[in-house]
Amino acid sequence: MSTLNLSRHLKSVVGEIETEGEMRLSAIGIGHDVTSYCRDGIVALRPHELVAS
């Protein structure tokens, strides 16, 4: 399966989960923007940025 097909599939599955509304889906991207895949996605440039102060 190509990268483009995997990306489309991921967006489709995440969209179904978010639309259904029975569970909340979140994503964390370390140096990678995941907001195009997940509505509640966040991006951190380094793992230590995720530690609560």
Radius of gyration: 13 Å
Helix content: 25-40%
Number of E-type strands = 2
Major β-sheet strand ordering: 1-2
Describe the biggest sheet?
Answer: 2 strands, parallel
How does the helix and strand content classify structurally? Answer: alpha+beta
Mean pLDDT: 90
Order of helices and strands: HEE
Tertiary shape: flat
Continuous helix count: 1
Strand content: 15-25%
Unreliable residue runs: none
For the record, give the distance between the C-alpha atoms at the N and C termini, rounded to a whole number: 41 Å
Characterize the structure shown:
The chain is α+β, with helices and mostly antiparallel strands. Helices cover 34% and strands 19% of the residues. The chain has one helix and two strands. The chain has one helix at 3-20, and strands at residues 26-30, 40-44. It has a two-stranded parallel sheet with strand order 1-2. The longest helix has 18 residues, at 3-20. The radius of gyration is 13 Å and the shape is flat. The relative contact order is 0.17.
Q: What does the secondary structure layout of this molecule look like, with pairings?
A:
Layout: H1 3-20, E1 26-30, E2 40-44
Parallel strand pairs: 1-2
